[in-house]
Amino acid sequence: MSLTNFSHGENAQAATLNGSSASGIQIEIFSQLDPLQINLMHSWHIRLSESGGVISGASITMNGGMPEHDHGLPTQAQVTEELEPGLYLMEGIRFHMPGLWELQFSIEHGGRVELATIEFKL
């Protein structure tokens, strides 16, 4: 799978999805597929920041599903590496039907665990 579609520098694409934790950790998701599509396995770059600085060395897990259909995600995506300080590669993402999706991110960093939820329609 080629990751050449990812771009985060000056004049780069806007984040596909974004959100924040209650304490202000910002999460920006840059999808290999933009716009997101159904039934295609893909990867994300996830950028974490707080008060203007990046968050390096974090552990990120994602759960979620479709609350209107009462089922979870069809895959178990995982962060496989930190590409650069604050930028993480998550692989194994697939959405199998249109509708409202809710993703919960658990971000462990500096001895604390932060939660962020992102909702979107596909």
What does this structure look like?
The protein has one domain (17-121): Domain of unknown function DUF4426 (Immunoglobulin-like, Sandwich). The chain is globular. It is built from no helices and ten strands. The two termini are 22 Å apart. 0% of the residues lie in helices and 53% in strands. The chain has 122 residues and is mostly beta strands. Strands 1, 2, 3, 4, 7 and 8 form a six-stranded antiparallel sheet that branches. The chain has a four-stranded antiparallel sheet with strand order 6-5-9-10, with no helix packed on it. The model has no long low-confidence stretch (mean pLDDT 91).
Summarize the structure in short.
By secondary structure, the chain is mostly beta strands. The chain is built from no helices and 10 strands.
